[in-house]
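Notes taken during the Thursday session

The instructor put the following on the board and asked us to keep it in front of us for the whole hour. The protein is DUF2635 domain-containing protein. We were told not to look anything up and to reason only from what is written here. First, the residues (63 in total):
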Amino acid sequence: MAKTMTLIEAPGRTVPQADGQPWPEGGLTVTLPASTYIRRRLRDGDLIEAAPVKRTRTEKEAS
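Then, after some discussion, the predicted structure tokens were revealed:
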């Protein structure tokens, strides 16, 4: 299974996706290794990794 990470815009930053579309408010999950564009945005502090969402027991059982 490929590793992924969910990225969100850093506070106060507006970041377009590589294709020019707005970055989704809930973040965007990218497959690693990330593209040069994503790596540059991470290095510059425009994007940050979203905190993992903790799933409740009910959500786990429903999956």
